[in-house]
Task: structure prediction
Amino acid sequence: MRTDATSARRVQNAGKFEVTMWFFMRISGVLLLLLGAFGLVYANLVGGYGNLDAGAQMRWSFFPISFHVQSSDVEVAPNFSNPFWNAYAFLLIGFAAAHAFNGLRSILRDYVRNPLLLQWLQAFLLVLWIFMLVAAIYVIFVFSNQ
Result:
């Protein structure tokens, strides 16, 4: 049987977690914007300005793979074989996935009233998030260096 002190402690711990996740959403949103802006600026600095259409610039800035812009005359140096762009792509995917799945977790907490179902759905989201990060690591660090 739960005492009031135990119940209050759980609510207090859950509150700290929610505040932490609230700050994470704001910080990760700003980092996503900065990472995207960095990629777009770099795409223009290496010769994309005037040589690439807007779609090719966006594809290249968010996923700097050389075959995204092979139809142009721009020499695209960075690709996934460069450790800097490996880290850049992983940070971009990692922050985007964490930001998105935390948003989904927040939506589930708002709309799912059954506590057991909520725990199962949150566990499913956690497993899906881990799977996506492992898939991102595989694509970025293993598959792309072949």
In short: The longest helix spans residues 4-48. The helical segments are 4-48, 54-62, 83-111, 115-142. The chain has a mean pLDDT of 78. The radius of gyration is 20 Å.
